Structures are given as structure tokens and as C-alpha cells.
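Exercise 7. Given the encoded structure of a 474-residue chain, write a plausible sequence.
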């Protein structure tokens, strides 16, 4: 008797039932988080609509040749760089909501519309642009969106800054907060959208204690180290958190510059950051605490700086252009290229006594540390069995010559009678500036032309140099 399997319809019914059960279980197990996500989804759609409307208004104004009035018909001089000593932050919370405005950032004022007009799109609403002032009968918005919670106490409301323009708001669910950390804006924890994400000031009202939302939230604060701490030695740094309340904390996650670094599930909550000189820089840290119901609170940020001295380093600088003295002739390419191609088949050649050649060297970018030595390096040889040639370092530092006389600078013999004519490396180290006798400075190095002087002691022929470079130790 043939075996009978499930039909396609039966399989689809089973999959549908399992999907419904999964959704129900998720909602039962974590309803608060999904309510947050629903509100955040609406916030994201609101901001997309507002951003699209502002862009349409800006484009329409440019097409019809009218004035781009980003602070609307009821205000003037309110935008960044408009010259108003008190630039305006336009806020979606109504002025008659019963809440007073928080203390604004220095140089700014909060501007709010009353509840009868705060959703108007004719310039009377919380966002002051007159969206009805467009050609072609097209109106990008019929009503201004506002935050689903929209209170100062909760910290969830919308703001608008003009000149160009920037829209700011906060998400409350873990899922959507990642968008705020990756929006290319300037403030961590705030979702920023617009044509210029640098014009809105940091607003302390964006970092309140979370609203209760009919639940008791855990508290969290970074208690050690203190914000502004600086580290100059490698080793562990313990980021310690105080997270306690009547409900209890199940987990604390740690964030560096908005990126999760790990979590701790047992009190005392802490994260160990093992720092090295590779971590030199300034970092923003915050923590987030979660209770058994997955309610979350985010701490304020702290700033930590790492400035560990780096061990001895060496920069190698090659010729980048022809210098003041140009007597030697290149064979195999340009003079600067043959000295840095790493071979002995190309070179520069000089055949006249006391002939000189110098090169401008690569520049040192953003140097740090004190210079301990500058080493002049060449590979060179002579060309005649019966000749003896000598060369010496020849340099121009800050416009002054070194190696310009027979007696100045170390003499380097290139060969003797019966030399095998092999290119060999030669090096002279200078612990101080050989002209001034003072310690090297980075300006000395960046003004330096490096080269050679040729001196014929016996016979004829010529001298060849296949490589020339400087090594700077610091």
C-alpha cells in the first residue's frame, strides 16, 4: 500500500499555526519591548515624512525662484548663522501641555506652538515652515506629525533646527537605537536627519530618566572611572556601574562610541577594557541596564582619554623632488625615481671633483615625539680600477649648507685601487642638527635637502649612487 504524505495545503496550515503561536508567545513574554518598537516604527515614518516634506519645500522654492524661508512666516533670524543672539529650537511639545520647557543650551531658546495650532502646516505649527506655500497645488503634508509620547518628562519629542536644517528625536527600543548610533550625526543616542547634522546643539533633555510606561525601570550610572579620566600607561581599565532599584537588574551592557562592547549579568557590574597605545584617543562610554521584563535605562555618557607614549619609531624619507644643486646625471629614469626603486641598475652619476647634488625629501605628516637621530643613507660605488673617490653627506637645512667645504662632514671612501666596483651601503648618523648643533626639530627635517658631494682623490672615472634616503628616529 503506498505511503501517504502531507499535502501542500496541510503544510501551509501547519506553518501558519506555528507562526501565530510564535507571535503570541513573543508578545506574552515581552510586551513592553514590542510596544516600544511600535512607537519607534511610527517615529521613523514620521521623520521620513517630515524630511521628505522639507526637501520638497526647498526644491519647490528653488524652482519657482522664491525665498527659502526655513523658519517660516512667523519668525525671522531664528536659524543658525542668521545673526539672532538666541537661535531657536522648535519643539513638538505644545506650549499649553502643562510642562515647562527645560533649560535650553547656551545661546538657544525653545519655541513651542499651542495645542490648537501645533500640528498646522501653514507655519503656525511646531515646525514653522509654511508647507502650503508651494506651486502646482501640491502640499507635501496635511498635518504635522508629533511624537507618540511627546512630553519633556519622557524625553521623547521632536525638534527642528534650521540653517540648513536638522531634525532630532530619540528611540526607546533596543532594536531602533542602533539607527541613532549609525546616522552620521554628532550626538550619541539621538536620531538625526536633515541636510546638516552639525547645527543642532546637544540637548540635555534628550537624556532623562526613562518614563515609567506603567513599569518600574532600573537605574544605571557609571560610577568609575570619572568622566574626563586620562590614561598614560597600558593595562586594564574597569568601567564600573551602579545599577540597582526595587525591581532589580538582570543585565548591563557597555557601549564605547555607540558600539556594544559586551555585557555583565552579575553584580557588581563592570567591564574590563585592556588598553594599549593602539587605543590612543578619546572615547565616549555609556551603559544600559535591563530588568527581568526587559525594561531598559541608558546612563549618561562619560569621556575617557588614552594617551600612552609610543615606543621608539623610525620614519624613512625618500627624495621627492630635485633640490638646489643638480650636478649629478640620472641613468635609467628621473633622478628622484632611480634613487627609490630599490635596485642598483639605475643610479645618478657624477664625474667632476667637488660636484654636488641635493634632493628635497618627503614631508613628515603630523609628527609626535622628540627626534633622537637623523641618519643619512646611500648605496654607492666608484667606476675605475685606478681611481679613489670619496663622497660626503651634503645637506641644506633651513637654507644653510652642510658639507660645503673639504673639511666639513665625514669623508666616505668609495673604493681603493683594485676595488671590485660593488654598490655598498654607507650611513652617517647625526644626533643633533649638524649646522646649529641643537637638537633636531621637525621643522628642520621638513626643510632639509639631502644630497652628496663628490671628491676625486686619485685617478679618473666617476662615482655612482643608486639609493639615497633619510631615517628619522623619535
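Solution.
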Amino acid at each position: 500500500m503506498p505511503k501517504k504524505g502531507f499535502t501542500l495545503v496541510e503544510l501551509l496550515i501547519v506553518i501558519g499555526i506555528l507562526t501565530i503561536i510564535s507571535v503570541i508567545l513573543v508578545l506574552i513574554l515581552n510586551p513592553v519591548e514590542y510596544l516600544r518598537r511600535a512607537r519607534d516604527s511610527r517615529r521613523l515614518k514620521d521623520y521620513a515624512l517630515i524630511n521628505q516634506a522639507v526637501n520638497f519645500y526647498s526644491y519647490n522654492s528653488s524652482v519657482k525662484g522664491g525665498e527659502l524661508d526655513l523658519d517660516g512666516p512667523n519668525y525671522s533670524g531664528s536659524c543658525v548663522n542668521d545673526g539672532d543672539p538666541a537661535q531657536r529650537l522648535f519643539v513638538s511639545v505644545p506650549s499649553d501641555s502643562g510642562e515647562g520647557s527645560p533649560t535650553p543650551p547656551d545661546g538657544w531658546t525653545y519655541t513651542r506652538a499651542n495645542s490648537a495650532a501645533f500640528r498646522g502646516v501653514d507655519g503656525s505649527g511646531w515646525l514653522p515652515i509654511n508647507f502650503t506655500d508651494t506651486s502646482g497645488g501640491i502640499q507635501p503634508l496635511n498635518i504635522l506629525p508629533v511624537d507618540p509620547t511627546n512630553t519633556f518628562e519622557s524625553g521623547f519629542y521632536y525638534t527642528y533646527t534650521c540653517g540648513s536644517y536638522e531634525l532630532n528625536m530619540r528611540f526607546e527600543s533596543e532594536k531602533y537605537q542602533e539607527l541613532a548610533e549609525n546616522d552620521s550625526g554628532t550626538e550619541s543616542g539621538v536620531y538625526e536627519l536633515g541636510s546638516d547634522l552639525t547645527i543642532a546643539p546637544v540637548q540635555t533633555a534628550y537624556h532623562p530618566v526613562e518614563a515609567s510606561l506603567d513599569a518600574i525601570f532600573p537605574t544605571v550610572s557609571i560610577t568609575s572611572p570619572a568622566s574626563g579620566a586620562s590614561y598614560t600607561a597600558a593595562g586594564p581599565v574597569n568601567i564600573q556601574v551602579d545599577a540597582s532599584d526595587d525591581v532589580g537588574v538582570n543585565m548591563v551592557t557597555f557601549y564605547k562610541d555607540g558600539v556594544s562592547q559586551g555585557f555583565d549579568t552579575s553584580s557588581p557590574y563592570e567591564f574590563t577594557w585592556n588598553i594599549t597605545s593602539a587605543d590612543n584617543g578619546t572615547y565616549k562610554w555609556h551603559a544600559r541596564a535591563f530588568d527581568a521584563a526587559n525594561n531598559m535605562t541608558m546612563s549618561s555618557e562619560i569621556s575617557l582619554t588614552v594617551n600612552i607614549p609610543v615606543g621608539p619609531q623610525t620614519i624613512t624619507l625618500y627624495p621627492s623632488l630635485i633640490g638646489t644643486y643638480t650636478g649629478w646625471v640620472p641613468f635609467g629614469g628621473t633622478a628622484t625615481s632611480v634613487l627609490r626603486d630599490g635596485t642598483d641598475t639605475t643610479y645618478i652619476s657624477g664625474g667632476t671633483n667637488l660636484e654636488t647634488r641635493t634632493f628635497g625629501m618627503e614631508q613628515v605628516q603630523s609628527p609626535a615625539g622628540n627626534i633622537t637621530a637623523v641618519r643619512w643613507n646611500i648605496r654607492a660605488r666608484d667606476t675605475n680600477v685606478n681611481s679613489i673617490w670619496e663622497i660626503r653627506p651634503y645637506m641644506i637645512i633651513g637654507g644653510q649648507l652642510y658639507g660645503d667645504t673639504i673639511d666639513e662632514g665625514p669623508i666616505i671612501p668609495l673604493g681603493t685601487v683594485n676595488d671590485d666596483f660593488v654598490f655598498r651601503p654607507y650611513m652617517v648618523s647625526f644626533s643633533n642638527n649638524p649646522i646649529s648643533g641643537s637638537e633636531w626639530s621637525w621643522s628642520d627635517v621638513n626643510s632639509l635637502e639631502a644630497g652628496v658631494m663628490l671628491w676625486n682623490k686619485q685617478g679618473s672615472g666617476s662615482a655612482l649612487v643608486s639609493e639615497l634616503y633619510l631615517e628619522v628616529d623619535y
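Remark. The CA atoms of residues 94 and 115 lie 5 Å apart. Students should compare their own answers with the one above.
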